[in-house]
Structures are given as structure tokens and as C-alpha cells.
Amino acid sequence: MILTGKPYLPERKKLETYIDRIYDQCWLTNDGFLLRELTDRLSSYFGVSNILLVTNGTFALQIAYRALGLDGTVLTSPFSFAATTTSLEWEGIHPKYVDIDSETFCMDTRLLEKAIDSETTGAVPVHVYGNPCDIEGIQAIAEKNRLKVVYDAAHAFGVRIDDRSILCAGDASVLSFHATKLYHTIEGGAIVFRDAQVLERAKGMINFGMNSEKNLGGPGTNAKMNEFQAAMGLAVLDDIDLIMERRSEIWHRYESRLKDSFQLQRRNPNGTNNYAYFPVVFQDEEALLSTDKKLTSHGVISRRYFHPSLDTVYGDNQIMPVSRSIAGRVLCLPVYADLTDGQVEVVCDLLLFSDD
Ligand SMILES: *Cc1c(COP(=O)(O)O)cnc(C)c1O
């Protein structure tokens, strides 16, 4: 079997050295030693300040909205994972969709400004498959219309644009460290805030509303990352260069074999690639379905990701034609560190040649 994604497991001995420290300290959660170390290491890895680690990416989105005071209507992308929209609804915010660009698969900036009305307080664009959005265009529209911008950067671990981290864009950027992502802490997530004061507010929110003096105040919930999550995060971070290198090789192998036969995502020319996903777009949904069936019968599990377009499930019955079109035709191919070159060739052969 060849799976779409396979969680990265660091060497067990290495993970144990971190877990030994948890046993030595007998400190399992609440701003522990490993959490602090991981926060520092990620902060320097990305080159950002104001980073807050939390228990998962969905909570990271919710906390970012609250800390920035989003309410009313927020504009977001229909071509994403469900959590981008459902986290808004969960916070009592009304999601309104803005369609995507047919080549970059990110929010179409030309449509963003038209969608703003008197209820709009913010935007949640998605760096789809780690491809940086038009952050300058979005920033200009946000400033003009006094909108807060929270980027769903769940796919964008390690991505840089114009020589700085993509996580510097907007008022906040949110990462997911779920097991199936490029980098993970089993379950986990992070928020990078532009403003240190907003970070302080969010720190209280994830710990029942307690401030740094341990006084209660303001709304709170429990979204803390625990020490075992941080241990996994530290061990995976130790291997991140190797993980990225291998993914890059796989990604380029796919690209060279498939670029003339399928539509591939157009990447932002100023951004780097983290090789998190390899999406291919078919001519039509029938072609996708028949190829997917063939792949499955040969033990290759690819993923219709994202499918369906979120406007078919959530929101006010808006119809987002571009998102629906791409969602109906896109398939993400297997990419993970221990996928072999031979396996990549098998997948490409199945995509390119009919076997009957
Ligand atoms: C994975 C993902 C999320 C949710 O993150 P979790 O850590 O699984 O809660 C949100 N948005 C996008 C685009 C994702 O891919």
C-alpha cells in the first residue's frame, strides 16, 4: 500500500530522551520545560516572535479570531479544509466566501474587495498547499477597509516569501501540527501574532482566562499544548531538514514526469515551496474518478483534497464556481519522507499510462 500521507515517526530512542525529561521533572502540562524549548526553537526556525503553541490547529484559528476581536461577517476561502469555515461558525462569526484563483487555488484578491460590506470585520485567506496568497494585495485591501487578516497557514510550515517567514503576513497566522501534516506534534498548532499585546491576551485565553499573575479575568478556555506533544515536536524538528530534503526530491520527481499531462498549481514566484502536497488537476471529474479507482486497485491511496468545495456544505448557499471546479478535479498524490523513488515511479506510471 502507498498512502497519501504517512505521519513521520522520529527514531524512538531520540523521542525517549525528551520523554525522559518529562519523567525527571514530573511536569506534564502548563507551560512546561519542553513546551518552552519548542516555542523558542520554532521561533528561531521561522525567524518570528510572538508565537503561541496550542493544542491543535482548529483551536489556534478560534483563539486568533477571539484575540483579534473578529465578529459579524468574515470573508474566507471555500477551497480549504472544513476547519477554516467551521472554526468561524463555532465562534459565532458568519462566514462569507470569496472564490479562488483558478491557477494558484488561493483567494482571488480581485474578488475580495467586492465582497466587503458593513458587517465585515476580517478575512481568513488560506495559503493553499503552502502556496503564499497575494499578501500585499490583501494587506492593501485590509488597511483600506480596516479589516483584520488571519491567515490559515496550516499547510505553510517553513514557507518563506521575499526572504522572510510567510507567518509574518497579516495580523495573525495559524499553523496546524496535526500528525498528517509536514511537521507535527501528534495534535497541535500555533499562532503567530503581529502584535505582542494580542499574544498576551491569547496566552490568557488558552489557560481559562488566567493572566500572567494567575488572576482570572476575561473569557477563557483550555487549549494548552502538553509536554508529550512538545516532546514529539522537538524530536520531529530535529529531523526537519532531512524530511524537507526528501520531500523536495519526491516533489520534483513528480513534477518532471507529470507537468506536461496535468494542470499543476501555479506557485507564487516570490515564495519558497515546502513540498507539503503534490496536487494534480484532471480535465474533468470523470477522468479523476477513473484514475483514482485504478490507483486504489493498485494499492495507491490518493486523496481528494480539498473536496467538496465548502460552499456546497456551509454558509448561505453561495455558489463558488472556480472552487467547485477545482475541488471536483484535484487529487493529492502520496508525499512523505520514506516514500521510495520506485513508488513515485509506480504512481506516475499509473497516472500516465492505461494498463488495459
Ligand atoms: C489541518 C488543517 C486545519 C486544522 O488543523 P488541526 O490541527 O487538524 O485542527 C485547518 N486548516 C487547514 C487548511 C488544514 O489543512
Account of the 3D structure:
- It contains 12 helices and 11 strands.
- It has 356 residues and is α/β, with parallel strands linked by helices.
- Strand 2 (73-76), helix 4 (82-90) and strand 3 (94-97) form a beta-alpha-beta unit.
- Helix 3 packs across helix 7 (196-205).
- The longest helix is centred in the C-terminal third of the chain and has 19 residues, at 240-258.
- The relative contact order is 0.17.
- The model has no long low-confidence stretch (mean pLDDT 96).
- Bound molecules: pyridoxal-5'-phosphate (PLP).
- Pyridoxal-5'-phosphate (PLP) is lined by residues 56-58, 80-81, 83-84, 126, 152, 154-155, 176, 178, 189.
Strand content: 5-15%
- Please report the number of helical segments: 12
**List of distinct ligands in this structure:** pyridoxal-5'-phosphate
Note poorly predicted spans: none
What does the overall shape look like? Answer: globular
Instruction: Report the mean per-residue pLDDT as an integer.
Output: 96
Q: How large, in whole angstroms, is the Cα Rg? A: 20 Å
First-residue to last-residue Cα separation: 21 Å
SS class: alpha/beta
Percentage of residues in helical conformation: 25-40%
- Along the chain, the helix and strand elements come as HHEHEHEHEHEEEEEHHHEHHEH
Q: Please give the largest β-sheet.
A: 7 strands, mixed
